[in-house]
Design a protein that fits this description.
The chain has 458 residues and is of the alpha/beta class. Helix content is 36%, strand content 22%. Strands 1, 2, 3, 4, 5, 14, 15, 16 and 17 form a 9-stranded mixed beta sheet that branches. Strand 7, helix 3 and strand 8 form a beta-alpha-beta unit. It is globular and about 70 Å long.
Length: 458
C-alpha cells in the first residue's frame, strides 16, 4: 500500500529536539506513522499521496505530552479525603479501593485516559497495584481501555504483599502473596508487552512502595524485570514519613534501600522523589534513574517541593505525572506543565528554577526518557513516531501572549485542534474521535456510585 501523508503547515513549531529548535511558521509532514520532515515555511512541493492538509495558522505544534505516573482506578474516587497528608489519605481510601472490580477498573481507565487524551497526552501510563481477591482481569481491562482510546500506553503492573497484619496499610484481602504477585506480573509481561519501535503497549514491573511491599518482592521484582527486559517503576521518597519508615524498618533511607534491592538504574523510574538530599540526587544521576515529577499531587497531599532544578542540573532524567485523580482531581497533564514551573519557583532557586521551555521538555522529551522511549517519541524529528499535538493559540485565552510556548505553559489550557498518535487522529477540535466522552462520563458516575455503595456496606 502506498505511503499516506498528512501535511500540517503555517503553524509555530516547538520541536523539543536537542537544540530546542523552533519555527515561527513551519510545516510537519507525516508519512504513515512516522514524521517525515519538520522545517520552516511551507512543506515540500509535489508530495505524493497527501490524504489531508491542515492549515495550522494561529496554532502551536508540539510533541504529544507524555504522562509518566498515574493510578487510573482513582478516577472513581475523586474529591475524597481532600484535607489529608499521604498516609492519612491512604488509610482513608484503601478500604474503598480494596472493593474495585474489573468493570470499575475498565470504566475508571476510560475516564482517566479520555481526560488526558483530550488535553494533549499521546502517551499514558498507569501504575495499577490494587488487585483484590476475585476482582477479575484488571490489567486486561485497563489495557483494553487504552487501546480503544488510541493512546500509546505503558502499564506498570504493580503489586503489594504487605497488608495490615504485616504492618502495612491495605486490608489483608487487597494484597497478593509474594509468589502470586511475581507470577501474575510475569504473565502480564508475557501476554501484553511489545518491545517493537512503534509499540502501542508496554509493561513495567512495579511493586507499589517500600511501605507496602516486602524486601523480597522488591528484589525479585527487579530480577524479573531484567530477566524479561522491561522497565521498573515504584514510588520513592514521597514524604518525610516514608523516609522515617525506611530508616526504622531497614536501617537506611529510601535511596540506599532502593540501591540495596537493585532498584537504581537506567531502566528504573520513581514517582515523586520529593525528599532527596544531595547524595540521593547524585546516586540517581550516576545510575541514570528517572523521576516522575507530580507537582499537583505533591501539593494536594502536602508532601513538599521536589528539587527538580537540582535533579536536572545533575543529569537526572525527569518527566511529569498526573498521579492518581484522587490526589489530582483535574486528571490532565497541562496542569502539570504550569504547576511544575510555578511550584518549583517557590523553592530555593526562585525565578531561576524552571522556564516555560524546560517545563514543556519535562512534559514531552523528559517523559519519553523516563519511559525508555526517547528514541521514538518526545520530540518532533524526522524518523520519530508521529505523536504530536496542534494547540490553538489564537483565542481570547492566549491572544495577547506573543510567545506561543509561554502561552501554552503559563496560560489557560489551550484547545487541542488535532492530536495524532502513531499518525492516527485521536482528537479533533477538542473532541475524542475513537470513544464517546459523554458515555464515559455517565459510566464513571455510575461506577463511582456503585463503588461507594459497596464500600459503605462493609
Amino acid at each position: 500500500m502506498p505511503v499516506q501523508r498528512i501535511v500540517i503547515e503555517n503553524c509555530a513549531i516547538a520541536t523539543v529536539d536537542a537544540g530546542d529548535t523552533e519555527y515561527a511558521s513551519g510545516h510537519i509532514v507525516v508519512a504513515d506513522n512516522r514524521i517525515e520532515s519538520v522545517g520552516a515555511g511551507k512543506a515540500p512541493e509535489n508530495l505524493e499521496n497527501v490524504v489531508r492538509r491542515v492549515d495550522g495558522t494561529g496554532h502551536l505544534a508540539t510533541p504529544g505530552l507524555v504522562n509518566t505516573h498515574h493510578h487510573f482506578y482513582q478516577w472513581i474516587t475523586r474529591g475524597l479525603a481532600t484535607d489529608h497528608n499521604l498516609f492519612d489519605w491512604l488509610v482513608a481510601l484503601y478500604p474503598t479501593w480494596a472493593r474495585i472490580d474489573e468493570r470499575m477498573a475498565y470504566v475508571a481507565a476510560q475516564g482517566s485516559l479520555a481526560m488526558m487524551a483530550r488535553g494533549g497526552v499521546t502517551t499514558a501510563m498507569d501504575h495499577h497495584y490494587v488487585f483484590p481477591e476475585g476482582s477479575g482481569d484488571l490489567s486486561g481491562a485497563i489495557i483494553r481501555a487504552a487501546r480503544e482510546t488510541g493512546v500509546r500506553f505503558t502499564l506498570a503492573r504493580g503489586s503489594m504483599d504487605r497488608s495490615r497484619k504485616d504492618g502495612g496499610l491495605p486490608p489483608d484481602f487487597a494484597v497478593e502473596t509474594l509468589e502470586g504477585a511475581l507470577a501474575a506480573t510475569e504473565a502480564t509481561v508475557d501476554e501484553h508487552h511489545d518491545a517493537s519501535f512503534d509499540s502501542m503497549t508496554q509493561i513495567a514491573v512495579a511493586p507499589c512502595s517500600p511501605f507496602s511491599v516486602s524486601t523480597e518482592l522488591m528484589k525479585q521484582g527487579a530480577e524479573l524485570a531484567r530477566r524479561k527486559g522491561v522497565r521498573l517503576h515504584t514510588h520513592g521518597s514521597e514524604t518525610v514519613e516514608e523516609e522515617q519508615f525506611c530508616k526504622e524498618l531497614f536501617g537506611m533511607g529510601p535511596t540506599d534501600y532502593f540501591e540495596s534491592t537493585g532498584w537504581l538504574g537506567e531502566d528504573v523510574w520513581m514517582a515523586h522523589c520529593v525528599h532527596m538530599n544531595d547524595s540521593d540526587i547524585a546516586a540517581f544521576a550516576r545510575t541514570r534513574t528517572g523521576v516522575a515529577h507530580c507537582p499537583s499531587s505533591n501539593a494536594r497531599l502536602a508532601a513538599g517541593i521536589a528539587r527538580v532544578p537540582d535533579m536536572l542540573a545533575a543529569g537526572v532524567p525527569v518527566g511529569l505525572g498526573v498521579d492518581g485523580t484522587a490526589s489530582n482531581e483535574s486528571g490532565e497533564l497541562h496542569t502539570e506543565l504550569r504547576n511544575a514551573l510555578l511550584v518549583n519557583r517557590l523553592g530555593a532557586h526562585r525565578e531561576a528554577a524552571l522556564n516555560a521551555r524546560q517545563a514543556l521538555r519535562l512534559g514531552t522529551y523528559g517523559g519519553a526518557q523516563v519511559l525508555g522511549r526517547a528514541g521514538q517519541i518526545g520530540s518532533l524529528e524526522a524518523g520519530k513516531l508521529a505523536d504530536l499535538v496542534l494547540w490553538r493559540m489564537d483565542t481570547l485565552a492566549h491572544a495577547s501572549i506573543a510567545d506561543p510556548v509561554t502561552a501554552l505553559v503559563l496560560g489557560a489550557a489551550a484547545p487541542v485542534t488535532l492530536s495524532l498518535v502513531n499518525g492516527r487522529p485521536v482528537v479533533e477540535d477538542s473532541r475524542l474521535l475513537l470513544v464517546d466522552e459523554d458515555a464515559i462520563a455517565r459510566s464513571t458516575r455510575d461506577e463511582a456510585r456503585r463503588l461507594a455503595r459497596i464500600a459503605g456496606q462493609d
